[in-house]
# Entry
Amino acid sequence: MHKSFRGFGLVVIILAAVMLPSSNIDPATASIFAQADAVREVATAFLDAWNAENYDLMYTMVSQQSQSLYGDAVFRTRYQDADSSIVIDAIDYTIHDVALQGTSAAVTYDVTFTSSVFGTISDEDRIMRFVNEAGSWRVAWSNFDIINNLPANGRVIVDSRRPSRGNIYDRDGDVLVEEGGTTIALLVAQQDMPNVDDCLDLLADVLQTRRLSLQRLFLQFNPESVFYVGEIDPEIDALRGGELDAICGVRSRLEQQIRRYYGHGAAAHITGYVGQIPASQLDLWLSRGYRQGDLVGLTGIENEFDEVLSGRAERLLRIVEPGGTVIRELAGAAGSPSSPLQLTIDRDLQFATAQALADAYNFAEGNWGERSPGAGIVVLDVKTGAVLAMASYPTFDPNIFNPETICCTPLDVGTRINDLNTNPNQPLLNKAIQDQYSPGSVFKIVTTTAAAAEGLIGPDELFECGLEWDGSAFGDTLPVRFDWRFADGLEATGPVTISQALTSSCDPFFYEMGARLFRERGPGTLVDYALRMGIGVQTGLDPDEAPGNLAAPTSVEAAINNAIGQGDVQVTVLQMAVATAAIANGGTVYQPYIVQQIGGFDGATLEFSAEPTVVREIGVSEDVLNIVRQGMCDVTTDTELGTAWFVFENTNYHACGKTGTAQTNREPNAWFIAYVPREDPEIAIATVVLNSREGSEVAAPITRRIIDFYLGEAFESYPEWWNNLEYIPIEIPEGGTGGG
# Structure
């Protein structure tokens, strides 16, 4: 804070007096100077307290009469309102003259406000008045002490005109988020439905939501009650409106122009949503030039690129009377246009990915579907690192946070938002990047890479994969470790090469490689390979991205657990997709990215266009990569050793993948990673389905559904046992993994 004093004049001082030596100044004149100093000190302290936003201290300096007119709450609120409108960063002042007249005084001074929105605002020729109460000078306060000429009932307001918020497009220029787009709210009554269960099935499919959640909603209403069930896009209504009418007897369709999120929840974890400024963030957004009540991006792309999408409002800072008459314009700030964004997302693939998850959970509702809290999927372009799709389940409709929504009353909206925040399945969490999990056997692609690159075993050398493994020779303190086939009641795999060990997910092979890497190459060796493949470190895609965990093991037992993707190893779905893409493309780890360009649509100037960024090379030979690829490609084709051959046996393409079943404190996490096509890889996919079953049973069929869509193949039905069998718990032996 800057303050200065240019001296002061005293209207009662005889000019000649100031020309006399100090020894000749009479006591009365000296007293006047002392009184002026005292007034100046109070004025300085009052302005300094304002600059420190210490309104309580300021109020103690206000005269009793002023306090009787303005309570401390009113006083504080008036300053806070003015400060927030101006967005004051600092207050500089210059005190000029002090005028004394009996028990009153007046200080003339200038104030300069520094505002992050309006720049520098000069408020000159101000007068602060004082009264002497019981020998102390106090401020005879009025609104003029906030802003010059601010009436008693006047206000400092900001008139702003914000440009229309920018749209968000997919890689092909199709709209993902549209300002002023049309949504259609569906209202139904159960008495109009030929069969309520059939309507629940259809709505769960169309709305990509859990059937069980809809069932609970239906139970809240009588048969004749008309109620809101969700919103769809005009494109979906044109495609499936006839079914909705016939099966659900849609009573009413309410169209609304609002910020539209295509597919509603299909890409909610990517785009995020807009909403009113939360009270806890009000100061932050006000400092950026927003007003209370403005809609801002609160999560996802909407938040991260809010300044781009919202532009900058043209703002005028004004003093107005209660009737709205403008008394004085204090300052103005020029605005700037909003810009649209283009993402790398393929809208149709994104929708299909979200649909694959919703269909899977609803079909398996009586089995693993009701137990699993959710899933995450990432689809990458292996040649660039561009994110083509990223889905998290369960999802939500972003427009529930928009106060303009027509879904329900404000009270109901609050209830629904509270349900989202307290739901144990965490629908607001992006499970593809914001949480980390034990990878189980999908991590074996890292162990295979390290073992091959370090020369622990030759490409044609055989390893006897039995049902049991004794690691005492390597320092393992467990008496015996079992292969996953032991718990599944299968025969031993027998002799396998390193590629076949990956194909068959032979636990004993990876137990031994983990122990040997630790003992023969050093504790940090496996961690080093994982880091080189993009695992265990934030990729930089999202500020809230989980980092994963790859602490170097301190014992042989820990090293063995890490080698099979258990123990302390934690990864994100995105990290496994990055590693899979690197295996597929020849060893290049790309920086995953999701924003393709800023501007370039809707008449906006192109401001930025992304290019693929190489983070690093894994640094292994093509021979090593071929060992890993062979192992992955046989997973889906080798009917004797492959752990997912039965999922892909009737495809017209060749996918290469790896199953994983990771031990948790509940049901296991099901994993599947893949790239396709084998001959010239285009995409890499990583899928995790939490607390479900084996990767080959759950994650692989979902992944196949996405690959089928991408390649234009007919969908394969999900396994019938998902729908007609009860859940059977999986036994995973201590120190091991589940099956495929």
